[in-house]
Design brief:
Helix content is 48%, strand content 12%. By secondary structure, it is α/β, with parallel strands linked by helices. It has one domain: NAD(P)-binding Rossmann-like Domain (Rossmann fold, 3-Layer(aba) Sandwich). Strand 1, helix 1 and strand 2 form a beta-alpha-beta unit.
């Protein structure tokens, strides 16, 4: 689908990172942008920056884990612009809590944003695209959606996003609706993903950081800091929309990990974690650091 001046794009998680880059890419193309985010101050700042481009920009405070708020986002978009052409269900978070011993609220929060946010977004906007006769949906997953081993909670949601999006793609083709579908699977990108809990909306207090993740966190931050720019990701997304490509894969060097996993599944071999993820130290080093952290006496 060609991106045209005057088209309407909705981006969730638009106040920073990939979300802001997507919104800016569309705004630079002269499209109208509806920027949605759960962080009010950052959203206001993003709207101010986006408004410097040609298209009209509005900001809508939205917690994508709440169905009624995503529906309100869709209603606001259609009421203001009369329709919608591109929807990027991009908002995502990660919890630093221990997935097995930490509070279940960490699971509920991440699943609410990463999975239900995509489900609500598709259900709220796809009918408007179908009626309008033209549109494209981009759901943000992750390379963690193609092979597990990074973070159990995050991985689970991103695997689900890939599955949902692939099914949606087939359904749009089967019903002959002129709605394109893509799934974005980025690797390391310069975002504040590790600091997602600044926007904690779960029950109770923010869960404590798990000992294992606390050991790995410095490496994660370095990998993100040295990662691809969000603007480069946004350019690739725009290209894939215009070329009607389903897979938006930002890091080809990661793909052998996914291929090797599926080869092992075909052979019925018990799973083995990758010896090294691109941009990270060897797994043997990481495991040594994690074991050291787990053996350390608790602070206080």
């Amino acid at each position: 689908m060609k991106l045209e001046k005057g088209d309407v794009a909705v981006v969730t998680g638009a106040a920073s990172g990939i979300g802001f880059a997507l919104a800016e890419r569309f705004a630079k193309a002269g499209m109208h942008v509806v920027a949605a985010d759960v962080e009010p101050g950052a959203l206001d700042d993003a709207v101010t920056r986006l408004a410097k481009h040609d298209g009209e920009v509005i900001g809508v405070h939205t917690d994508v884990s709440k169905a009624e708020q995503v529906q309100a986002l869709a209603n606001s978009t259609v009421e203001r612009f009369g329709g919608v052409h591109v929807v990027c269900n991009n908002a995502g978070v990660v919890s630093r809590s221990d997935p097995w011993l930490g509070p279940i609220e960490a699971w509920e929060w991440v699943v609410g944003v990463n999975l239900w946010g995509v489900i609500y977004g598709v259900r709220a906007f796809m009918p408007h695209m179908a009626i309008g006769g033209r549109g494209h949906i981009v759901n943000t997953a992750s390379m963690a959606g193609l092979f597990p081993g990074l973070n159990p909670i995050y991985d689970a949601t991103k695997h689900a996003v890939v599955a949902i999006t692939e099914n949606l793609y087939h359904d749009m083709r089967a019903t002959n609706l002129n709605v394109g579908v893509s799934v974005l699977c980025p690797g390391w990108v310069r975002t504040a993903l590790v600091d997602s809990e600044r926007n904690w909306t779960g029950e109770g207090e923010v869960p404590p950081v798990g000992a294992a993740l606390s050991a790995v966190e410095p490496h994660l931050r370095r990998a993100l800091d040295e990662g691809l720019t969000p603007a480069a990701v946004a350019d690739l997304v725009a290209t894939c929309i215009e070329e009607d490509r389903f897979w938006v894969l930002t890091h080809p060097a990661w793909m052998p990990l996914a291929s090797e996993r599926w080869d092992s599944i075909t052979e019925g071999v018990n799973p083995e974690p990758p010896k090294q993820v691109p941009g990270m130290p060897p797994r043997s080093q990481l495991m040594e650091e994690v074991l050291t952290a787990l053996a350390a006496p608790p602070e206080g």
